[in-house]
Specification:
It catalyses: guanosine(46) in tRNA + S-adenosyl-L-methionine = N(7)-methylguanosine(46) in tRNA + S-adenosyl-L-homocysteine. 36% of the residues lie in helices and 16% in strands. By secondary structure, it is of the alpha/beta class. It has one domain (19-234): Vaccinia Virus protein VP39 (Rossmann fold, 3-Layer(aba) Sandwich). The chain has a seven-stranded mixed β-sheet with strand order 3-2-1-4-5-7-6, sandwiched between helices. Strand 2, helix 4 (90-93) and strand 3 (104-108) form a beta-alpha-beta unit. Helix 1 packs across helix 7 (169-183) and helix 5 packs across helix 6. The longest helix has 16 residues, at 37-52. It is globular. The protein binds S-adenosylmethionine. S-adenosylmethionine (SAM) binds next to strand 2, helix 5 and helix 8.
């Protein structure tokens, strides 16, 4: 198979020098962006779908699921789990990649809002995947990377086994640095060889282009107290 995918080009020589400051800020100051109505509706539908399933079935979140192939794979691999894939792109979600298993759901929503609603509703995913998030490799775009974003404490607070994969090693290293700052937990950055078992289209594209892939997996406690609130900010 032929595939071409350009290597990441960045103007950063190493981890972003403002990362620790960004994480500190996210841990201290609440995210005030209002939650969009469409994501509130989408979340309520997802919450209702979860409530219909077998009581106590563990939850898997596939955050930024793209076309939802990974959501389908995970649902088949973990048949006793409920798997929710979330992506903001209606176009990607609408592509036909076969029937969805009964234990899977695809949701169109903005994760920055969806994650906050999930935490507020008490969701505690057993597994949480961030598979090939947009890298935003320019130094000026640190705030758009999940670990440089104000939503970062919420991602961590949800808890469970969090797995990040990327074709940019520095993204995973920065994420590990931010995780350690927020929780004290060290997560190893490992190379990832998917072999013939691709979990996502981006994993496939990067691998057949000869790029190295990187991953981090860490088991986190459910820790809503990590997220700053207005009350805490006033102290
Ligand atoms: C590089 S693609 C990876 C897709 C898929 N995980 C894969 O590996 O094939 C990143 C995905 O994250 C989604 N995304 C980025 N920011 C998002 C947000 N704030 N809310 C929901 N989805 C988002 C994009 O729409 C896109 O589908």
């Amino acid at each position: 198979m032929h595939a071409t995918s350009r290597n990441i080009v960045t103007n950063q020589p190493g981890a972003h020098r403002d990362l620790a400051r960004r994480v500190e800020r996210a841990l201290r100051h609440p995210l005030r962006k209002p939650i969009a109505d469409h994501t509130r509706v989408a979340f309520e539908q997802a919450n209702a779908w979860l409530a219909q399933g077998a009581a106590g079935a563990p939850l898997i979140l596939d955050a930024g699921c793209g076309v939802g192939l990974s959501t389908r794979h995970l649902a088949r691999r973990f048949p006793d789990h409920r798997v929710i894939g979330v992506d903001r792109s209606a176009d990607r979600l609408s592509r036909d990649h076969g029937a969805l298993p009964d234990n899977a759901l695809l949701v169109r929503a903005d994760l920055v809002d969806f994650w906050r609603l999930a935490l507020a509703a008490g969701w505690q995913p057993a597994r949480h995947y961030l598979l090939y998030p947009n890298p935003y490799p320019k130094s000026a775009h640190l705030k758009a990377r999940w670990h440089g974003h104000a939503i970062f404490p919420v991602i961590v607070a949800l808890g469970g086994r969090l797995e990040l994969r990327s074709n940019w090693r520095l993204y995973v290293e920065e994420f590990a640095q931010a995780l350690e700052q927020a929780t004290g937990l060290k997560a190893a950055v490992e190379d990832h060889d998917p072999g013939a078992h691709y979990l996502t289209p981006f994993e496939h594209k990067y691998h057949v282009s000869g790029q190295s892939l990187w991953r981090l997996a860490v088991t986190l406690p459910h820790a809503p107290g990590l997220v700053p609130t207005e009350a805490k900010e006033e102290c």
